[in-house]
Amino acid sequence: MHARHIVYRIIRPWGRWGVSLWHRIDRQVVGAEHLDDRGPDGPARLLFAGHQNGLADPVLACVLLEPQLHFFTRADVFRNRWARALLLRLNMMPIFRPKDRVKDMADRNRATFEAAQQRLERGATCGIFPEAGHREERRIRRFRHGSARFIAGALQRPAVAERGLEVLPMNLDFERYEGYRTAARVRVAAPIDLSGIPGLAEDAGSARVVLSDRMREALIDCSLHLLEGDAYEPHLAVCRYLEGALGGRVSNATLQLAGQQIMAEADTALRDYQAALDAGWGAPRTSDDFAAAGRCDAERSTALLPHLWRWPAWILFMATAGWWPRIIAPAAARRVKQVAFRTTFSIPVNMMAVSMTWIVLSLGLGVAMGSPWVVPLSLLLLRGAQHVAMPLEDALIDNRTERRVSSLPPPRFVERWCRPLLEEAHPAG
Q1: N- to C-terminal Cα separation, the chain
Q2: 250 in helix, strand or coil?
Q3: Are strands 165-174 and 183-188 parallel, antiparallel or unpaired?
Q4: What predicted TM-score, i.e. pTM, was given to this entire model?
Q5: 189 to each of 30, 39, 257, 356, 415, how far by Cα in Å?
Q6: Taking Cα atoms as reference points, which of 82, 79, 57, 160 lies closest to residue 116?
Q7: How far apart are CA 148 and CA 151, in angstroms?
Q8: Mean pLDDT by 10 residues, the chain (429 residues)
Q9: Which residues contact 364 (CB under 8 A, 6 or more apart)?
Q10: Contact 250, 427 (CB under 8 A)
Q11: In angstroms, rounded to a whole number, what is the distance separating the alpha carbons of residues 371 and 386?
C-alpha cells in the first residue's frame, strides 16, 4: 500500500530515454503546475485520460510527469509472474474485465479499488482510463461509470476526505500511434469541480452518471476530439496538416471549425480525401504526408544546413545502433495486429536492442584496448552521439517526406479543406 516505490524511481530515467529515443516527446508539459508537490499533507490526486495507444499511454505519463503514478492496468498483462513482479513495483494495479473470464472478478476489482484508495490515503497520485478500453483514434469516447464509483468510494474514506482529493483530466496525445520519431505530448488541466453532485457521497447511481459526464466534458476541453465514423479520417488529415503548419498542437476551436465544414459537405469531403489517397498521398494514421504539406504551405520546410555540425554524431549513431528502429518498425507492423499496441512493442524492444548493442561494442573495445576504463567512456560517447544526432535524424525524416509530397500534384482536399484554415488556425494554449 505504498505511495512511492524505489524500483519506479530507478527505472523511470531509463524509460524516459527509451520513449524519447522512439518519439519526439515534448518535455514541457502544459499544466504541470497542477501536480506541484504540496508536501506530506498535500491532496491525493486522480488523473483520468482517454485511452488510445495501449500500454504506451501510461508509460508516456509516467516518464513525463514528476509524481509517481499508480495506474489501473488490464489484468491479463499480470499473468506472467516476472511481468507481474515488475508491474506491481511500477505501481500498476490489475483491473479485471469480463473478457478475462475470472469467476471472482467483482471481488478482485474491489480488492484493487481498496488498495488504490489506501494509496490515495498516503498521498499517491493514481491514473485511470474511464473509457475502459483503448482505440487508436484521437477522440474521447463514452465513459464507463467505474471511475465515478471509485471516486465516490474514495471520498467516503475519512483519511482521503481530510487530505482532499483532486480529480484532473489529462490528455495523452500521439500524433501517429506507430510512427518512429512522431510527436507525443502530455497535457494536464485543472481539477474538476466535485461539488454540487447530489448523492455522490452515498455513491448513488445518478451521481455516477453526472460525475462521468462532468469528467468527459472536462477531458474533451483539454484533448483533441475529432469526428467519429467515416468523417474521422478526413478530419485527422486536416488536423495533421495544421499541426505541421503550426509546429504543434492545434486549438480545439480551429478543429471544431474544420469539423463543422467537413460535416456540412461530408460526401464531398470524403470524395476529395479518397482522391488524395488514390493520387499517392499517405493516410494520416500511417503517414506524415499531410503534416509535411502543412509545413511547406506555411513556409516551415525543414532545413538541413543548420544541422551540418551534427553529421559526425549522426554517422556514429547510425553505424552503431541507429539502424535498429528501421528493423523494429516494420517488424511491429507485421507481428502486432492492433495498431494501438505497436508502440508498446516497439519502444521496449528498441530500448533493449540499442542498449545491448552499445554494451557489446563497449565491452569489445575495452577488451581490444586492454583497459576497463574504455567501457564506460565508450558508453558515454555513444549516448552523447545519439543525443546530438536526434535533431538531424528528425530533420532528415521530415525533409524526405516534404520532398516526396512536393513531387505529388496538390490534391483538391488540401486546396479545399486544409489551406483555407491556415488563416484561422491557432496553436493550443
Answers
A1: 37
A2: strand
A3: antiparallel
A4: 0.92
A5: 8, 21, 23, 39, 35
A6: 160
A7: 5
A8: 88 95 93 90 93 90 95 89 89 87 87 93 93 89 91 92 94 91 95 89 86 96 95 97 94 94 97 97 95 96 97 98 95 90 92 97 96 96 98 97 94 96 82
A9: none
A10: yes
A11: 24
Q: Could you tell me where the DSSP H helices lie in 279-341?
A: 289-297, 311-320, 324-335
Angle at 335 between CA 333 and CA 340, to 5 degrees: 60
**Which residue reads 486544409 in cell numbers?**
418
Rounded CA separation 83/194 (Å): 36
- In DSSP terms, which residues pair with 183 in a beta bridge? 24
Distance CA 340, CA 52 (A): 7
Domains, the chain, with CATH or none: 6-222 (3.40.1130.10), 234-301+409-421 (no CATH), 310-404 (no CATH)
The C-alpha cell that represents 45 in the structure block: 490526486
How does DSSP classify residue 415?
I
SS3 (DSSP) at 71? strand
Give the number of other CB atoms < 10 A from CB of residue 425. 23
Closest Cα partner for 237 from 416, 50, 427? 416
Residue 95: strand, helix, or coil: strand
C-alpha cell at 58: 501510461
